[in-house]
Amino acid sequence: MSESAAFGQWLRQRRKAYDLTQEDLAERVNCGFETIRKIESGRRRPSRSMAELLGQALGIPAAELPAFVEFARLGSGSPEPAAPASQEAPVAPPLTPPPRRRAPLDLPVFRTTLVGRTREAGEVGDLLARDEVRLVTLLGPPGIGKTRLSMQVAAAMHEQLADGAVFVPLAAVTDPAQAGAAIARRLGAKEVSGQPLSETLKNYLQGKELLLVLDNFEQIIPAAPLVGELIDACPELKVLVSSRTALALYGEQQYPVPPLALPDPQARPALDALTHYEAIDLFVQRARALKPDFRLTAATAPAVAEICRQLDGLPLAIELAAARTKALAPAAILARLSNRLALLTGGPADRTPRQQTLRGAIAWSDDLLDAADKTLFRRMAVFVRGATLDAVEAICRLPGAPPLDALAGVTSLLDKSLLRDTDAPGDERRYSMLWTIREYAEEQLVAHGEADAIRRQHADYYLALVEAAEPHLRSAGRDAWLARLDQEHDNVLAALGWGLAAPERAGLALRMAGALHWFWYFRGYLSEGRDWIERALAAAGAERPTAAGAKALDAAGRLALLQDDYAVMRPRLEESVAVWRAVGDDQGLAYALANLGIATAYRNRDVSAGGHLLIEEAVNRFRATGDQWGLAFALDLMGDVTGLLGGDDLTVALCKEESLATYRELGDQWGIATELSELGQLALRQGDYDTARTQLEEAVALEQVAGDRWFAAHSIRSLGDIAWHQGDLARAQALYNESLALYRELGDTLRASAALRNLGHIARDQGDYGEAAILFRRSLRLVHDLGNEQTVALCLAALAGVAALQGRPERAARLFGAADALREASRGLVPAPDLAASERGQAVARATLGEAAFARAWAEGRALPVAEAVAYAIRPGDDARQPAVPLSSTS
User: Percent of the chain beyond pLDDT 70?
Assistant: First the structure.
């Protein structure tokens, strides 16, 4: 026994002799009861001052305190304490712990080490150390590692309890009536003739300070009352149960066993840090047991990490996958994980069938379900990454079937560890399955012939959701609906995919794709949105020349405009306009005309091309239909087009002010704030900083009251522009960082990239060229992934300017050439500050290289394909290099 465990055991006995709870003793020595619990469990030693307080609280005479403190701190010394001063106090037990009476702990032998679970074992041990906790149940799905965790806890507590721990394996017991006999055999309790076995167990356990570990209890749940009887009759008994189902006993503490720790897929930890994650460490250890030369390398690590993620950190699944490394490389295992249950077989031959295959482990749980739970279990496989209770109720009951008590069913499956629950926005909960369990349930759904009917209801439900969300995405209530669609993103895409899988369902997919346009727009999922819309249009057939088709065409054109894809943008918007005219929907036609007008203006940049006229027609139609919101929207675009085509600022302002007045009539705080923000930006471009600041600050206040963080981020960024132009770099940096944080919270990648570029400008102006290059590269990576070529060109030019300032003129010239070619192809506009910085950088590079060398490097850059230009720009080179040109000389 360790010294700390010896003192902890003495402390527990002494405390109980004084009839004190852990909380009582903690209060007397002025510490938390968690501290007392850890000392008693041997997991912590008391400090010298705390040991003195403990001695005083427990009646140790002053003359014996030094020896007591030595025992508490070091485990040495064995002074006998005097009897308590109070005549009513019980006689204290001897200071030295009693001799061990426990038998050796008999645990199943595993030939492999346990990976991880240190935190979980500590938490379960802390629970069991609490006086009021008598029963802890480890809960989890098949293969999560409940047995191994219970063994680890038993081994740790065996030394802390006078009578140790006894491990009772129950996997082979299928009759609840035999549970008592199995426990008695393991304890060595002899049955007494004529006495119920439960009484024999109570008599045997009476007075024993013992941990009884009952493993694999799920198939004998009806025997749970016996456990309750033993706990009630034996005050010193603690029980640890591992089960897929809770025992539902009074006082039961449930401990859901989590999956093994996994790296965040966005974090990309260093290679040497990967094995600190339990899931990856387990894979590597089990792979090496079969293939001793297996190593985690830069080539294998991404596949191993993704395997562990796709297997949800489930230990049994990871072990079975690792067993395949004898024949397959990690990348090949990953490629085969689309059918997990077929791959994850072939565990050790000396383990039970359900431990040799994941399918067997899950089937074992399925077999224990009643008919109602089986039905709900297989139908919930339709959900991808979970669902709310409302969705379960709406989707999982088939027409004509008996009523479905979704709450009772979900609760039952949670109790049986076949579902997990997580928080959702608001007060809702979400219920989901681990992927491997979902795959098994999906097989059962197909086998029972219910797949088509349940998937139809799933698709109808999520179509109704996205169509209900669509109008709210154009209002100040946007954030809540965006968050809801974020939660249901995987379900929505699953419904879209199902709709596209058969021609007769194309109309459903078309409606859903069109309704999701604003979600994809605000979240910056431009490529994803375009792909789904184009697939829906291609499959639409006779549905294409309908209102649903016109809406999807309009959405396709608008998203193409954001990615500068003019070859697709114009024909989609023109077709949308034609279809809206044909179906006679003036309101839909007005929106399509407005979008076509702004797209035409951006593409052609001249009045004769008709962009202005198209938006004028949209304005007139909105006036005719009485759609005030649409009118305000079109007037706003009219101002944008007027400015784009070189119109005077007064005309632009008049359009924006009329739009603002219309929003004020509607009481639309979002629209008011939007127009104030745009008028502020117009004043900023004119150099009227005071007016700009006033309008933008009013816009921010309205946006924050309305809860519209998306537009608030825009206005805050524009306030940063004012500070930048006025030379207040510290304030500009703070405002840009504030807007960046909002964009990241909202998941708006496109605008986050713009804020990063703004911060790069600040770092450059502060003379920190290395930091500026890092920020510009981060911005470039984001916009390149989104396919926004105009912004890619701005990032390339910004990096070129920094390269010139760092004394790298040849790199600068190539990047300037690449930026120029891309800007020309995308017909992108260059904001005035970017243009000025670009001209300064080019002047520096020309002066350093000479005109001929600059022209050669420029031409090389112009000839680079976009992907190669981006790759070249992202390669950092020596960003920390001392700049050859002071910033002041470029001003």
Answer: 85
Q: How crowded is the C-beta side of 99, counted as CA atoms within 13 Å?
A: 1
Q: Are 85 and 59 in contact (CB under 8 A)?
A: yes
pLDDT band at residue 5 under the 50/70/90 scheme: low
Q: What is d(CA 805, CA 844) in angstroms, rounded to the nearest whole number? A: 7
Distances (CA, A) of 653 to 268, 616, 635, 669: 48, 16, 10, 19
Is residue 534 pLDDT above 70, yes or no? yes
Collapsing DSSP to helix, strand or coil, 64 comes out as helix
Angle at 621 between CA 620 and CA 625, to 5 degrees: 120
Tokens 């061990």 — which residue?
A: 100
Work out the widest C-alpha separation in the chain, in whole angstroms.
109
Q: Are 818 and 810 in contact (CB under 8 A)?
A: no
Instruction: Report the interhelical angle of 451-469 vs 435-447 (nearest 10°).
Output: 120
Q: Where are the alpha helices (DSSP H) in 416-516?
A: 435-447, 451-469, 478-487, 489-500, 506-515
Neighbour-count burial for 225-255, b at 16+ CB within 10 Å, e otherwise: ebbbebbeebeebbbbbbbbbbbebeebeeb
Residue 874, number of CB atoms within 10 A of its CB: 15
> What pTM did the predictor assign?
0.59
Q: Find the angle CA(43)-CA(46)-CA(49) to the nearest 5 degrees.
A: 170
Query: Of 776, 806, 780, 804, which is closest to residue 791 (Cα–Cα)?
Result: 780
Q: Would you say the C-alpha torsion 666, 668, 672, 674 has a positive or negative sign?
A: negative
319 closest CA partner among 299, 295, 344: 344
Helix (H) or strand (E) holding 43: none
- For residue 612 the two structure tokens come to 């202005």
E strands of 41-156, at which residues?
135-139
Q: In the β-sheet with 429-432, what is the strand arrangement from edge to edge?
A: 387-388, 429-432, 420-423
Q: Tell me: the pLDDT tens digits for 260-281?
A: 888 776 666 677 777 778 888 8
